[in-house]
Amino acid sequence: MSQFRVLAGVLKGLTWRCWAHPKRGCSSRTDPLPAVVSNSSYVEEMYLAWLDDHKNVHKSWDSFFRNIQASGPSGEAGERRPSALLQGRVLSRSLDVAEKVVEDHLAVHTLIRAYQIRGHHVAQLDPLGILDADLDSFVPSDLITTIDKLGLYGLNESDLDRSFQLPHTTFIGGQETTLPLREIIRRLEASYCGHIGVEFMFINNVNQCQWIRQKFETPGIMQFTNAEKRTLLARLIRSTRFEDFLARKWSSEKRFGLEGCEVLIPALKTIIDKSSASGIDSVIMGMPHRGRLNVLANVIRKDLDQIFCQFDPKLEAADEGSGDVKYHLGMYHERINRETDKNITLSLVANPSHLEAVDPVVQGKTKAEQFYRGDTQGKKVMSILMHGDAAFAGQGVVYETFHLSELPSYTTNGTIHVVVNNQIGFTTDPRVARSSPYPTDVARVVNAPIFHVNADDPEAVMYVCRVAAEWRATFNKDVVIDLVCYRRFGHNEMDEPMFTQPLMYKQIHRQEHVLKKYSEKLIAEGVVTLQEFEEEVAKYDKICEEAYTSSKDEKILHIRHWLDSPWPDFFTAQGEPKSMSCLPTGLDEEVLQHIGQIASSVPLEDFKIHPGVSRILRGRADLVKSRQMDWALGEYIAFGSLLKDGIHVRLSGQDVERGTFSHRHHVLHDQEVDKRICVPMNHLWENQASYTVCNSSLSEYGVLGFELGFAMASPNALILWEAQFGDFHNTAQCIIDQFISSGQAKWVRNNGIVLLLPHGMEGMGPEHSSARPERFLQMTKDDPDHIPEFTGDFEVHQLYDCNWIVVNCSTPANYCHVLRRQILLPFRKPLIIFTPKSLLRHPDARSGFDDLAKGTKFKRLIPDEGPAGQSPGQVKRVIFCTGKVYYELAKERKQQNLYRDVAIIRLEQISPFPFDLVSEEVEKYTNAELVWCQEEHKNMGYYDYVRPRFLTVVANKKPIWYVGRDPAAAPATGNKSTHLNELRKFMDTAFNMSSFQD
Length: 998
Hints:
Blueprint: H1 2-11, H2 40-52, H3 59-71, H4 74-77, H5 82-86, H6 89-118, E1 163-165, E2 178-180, H7 181-192, E3 196-199, H8 206-217, H9 226-249, H10 264-277, E4 282-286, H11 292-298, H12 304-308, E5 316-317, E6 331-337, E7 342-348, H13 358-372, E8 381-388, H14 389-394, H15 396-402, E9 415-421, E10 450-454, H16 458-475, E11 479-484, H17 502-510, H18 514-525, H19 530-551, E12 556-557, H20 589-599, H21 611-625, E13 628-629, H22 631-644, E14 648-653, E15 668-669, E16 677-678, E17 691-695, H23 701-713, E18 717-722, H24 733-741, H25 743-747, E19 754-758, H26 773-778, H27 794-801, E20 805-807, H28 812-824, E21 831-835, E22 847-848, E23 861-862, H29 867-870, E24 877-881, H30 885-896, E25 902-907, E26 909-911, H31 915-924, E27 929-937, H32 943-953, E28 960-965, H33 976-991
Parallel strand pairs: 4-7, 4-8, 5-12, 8-9, 9-11, 10-11, 14-17, 14-18, 18-19, 19-21, 20-21, 24-25, 24-27, 27-28
Antiparallel strand pairs: 1-2, 3-10, 6-7, 13-22, 15-16, 20-26, 23-25
Helix pairs in contact: 1-2, 1-6, 3-6, 6-7, 9-10, 9-18, 9-19, 10-16, 13-23, 15-23, 20-21, 20-22, 22-28, 23-24
Main location: mitochondrion
Cofactor: thiamine diphosphate; Mg(2+)
Subcellular location: Mitochondrion; Nucleus
């Protein structure tokens, strides 16, 4: 019996299929070993029961005892009397054999797991056969690639034909529970080491891992019908022949063709087909330039003549703006999906050459469409992002975008990422372009499965795309498809790749086209005939030729035909505003009072707030009683009044819920109940629009791109992004430069996004002072040497003519007005607001409710309304300024008692420059000298922008003097004493009546 105790000890604690006697009540295949196994009498009892009848025990026990018997001498093995087996030599040998059987089974289980974890490292992924997709030719030692490697597991060649029990963590057996080791290895290689390499074992969810195993391990699961193969071939023909046609007609034009990854087109169509079948009816896509024309033609189905006419150098622009090159443009199209007979909307978002910049924009647009449709689970709207391998690994916005994927206010419920893995970046070898084995490794941070696939195996690609679409529909999580391919030509068709990759391109020149290989395969299988194949090719070639002939009639480029986010109910059919006037932005007293009361209260009962927040709310209540507002209340009124009118408001950014400067408190937290919050703004009106306020990840580039995409979806929403400090926007400069400043000119993309940038010199150092207004002003398109002439409303026409609006408000009322004007304008322009820090609580930075009353509006310029303004002829100096510095100037003027000598005029809207109002003020003060005063350094801020425009106003008849800090390299000093000395110096200059006299 001691030997049974040893055997029981070996078995104790193992999790096997089920090592239990059926009569013991353990029939589940996945139950762990019962504790009774630790008792040697139980093992003996099982053995005796098995001797009576092999069916008395579970088949795993049956297999175990058969192995023991088979190892004994032939005469003794056949002995059926228990005493003969349980005593003497046979039992002694049985113990050794039992231990070996257990060890061998465990070894096989470990082997299976090794293939699941590392099989992709030896998968045949490179169509060229010259590179390793993981940049390493090393073969993991725990994969059985040669017989001698069996020794790593304590196995040898003789074990190859032994049958082993399969664990429940594999599906390679299909309906079988045991397989010979040789067959186990063969099936593992077929599942994990063929043209598909699967990375998924890092996922910490057992059900998700099992789901993936089932999709790739089940024997015979990757099957296609003849009809599906013919559809795949037809799509491959279109993809290939489209590129061939462009190459024949425009051989010397850049087109960034798809040659070498033609399978991308059928891949995308498969994803869309599968997603449409699961209920998706809107797909938003983003991609770099390679293959864009092909995607437009054969996925979104842009008219071919519209694409071909883009190659005409004589094409004249019909629309406002510069337009963009053809492989940067986007498109929006509604059509029937022929595979599912369901309507589907496809949108490809325009993208500049900053390859991955479009990623968060697509995600924001997708989130917006899901939000407005109430699609909280992403069952109707989804996104597909295409990437290049070098950009996917190298550009940080990819990482930022992935980290938004599961945040509550940013998730799109799963994105399908398709990497066109050229195995090269422009001229850079991947071995010096990334440190990770694969370009897709960044996706592992969010537990996204990664399917690597050889792009020269179309059926493998299609299967992977099906699985990816099913994954997204099942788990609502991101998934990555890595199409390992090659680039048949250089970075563009004019480039010579042999300069830098001679060996690769020698092989590429010998490489047979995927269409040729796949067509020959289907012809050999009898799926299609050679004649049918040639007829399909000829059919598409004819379509291209007819479109080419038609394209010659196009003499005018209509960029509006390439809109990726049309707003059909907002503009006229010609894309023009329905009016050129702005509705009044003032409000009724009852609206002001109601919003003020909610803003200073807690709408929920039994909700305990922090004492500090209680003081803030009481302060708001006091302001409301006195019909006054500070900055936070002015913002509250702007948002609340728009919500009343059905306008969705979304405020996003780092710490926006409370506000970086603890002034906003739009989300209240119960001090006694975890995660219990209250958003009073959502309790204003019965049928109001919803208010979304959400703290973001510590990202500017990704989050600003996301909010830009959100704002693209609808004109009837106020979308705001607030930087923690104004200068933090510089890490999002790409989005600002490429999408916000120039988006309308390049892509006719109207967008009303609002950037809130805290700005002001307050001795907080160079990183927390300047929002760099000079950068925004430099990118404005208004002419400094020409005063525009408009009939009708000058303000509205000037706003319509600009590329964005730049303001620096000095009063809460004006801030409220400009936010309301942003929505009440008949068009949309980006709005840049330099918001205050110290003015949030400055006692003089207050507005009365009368400043928001009916009939009031945003003041582009605030004139001097004191003694100087009432007696302009006596004024000796007019100081123009903007923002916070006004309060410092006003304080200094008061101290020096220069009310009648110096007028202070505030420019609230800096761009477009209010020529009309500035002219009125200059004409009013005919005897005064003109000064521009700013707190920023002379080479920064507003001076370089306003100076030529002032000179245009005065027709260069008098100068405008500069007062402010001297030029500097850093935006501000980090020394408080130096800061105060600088302030004192330019204040003295501003009010020294002789400082500018000859």
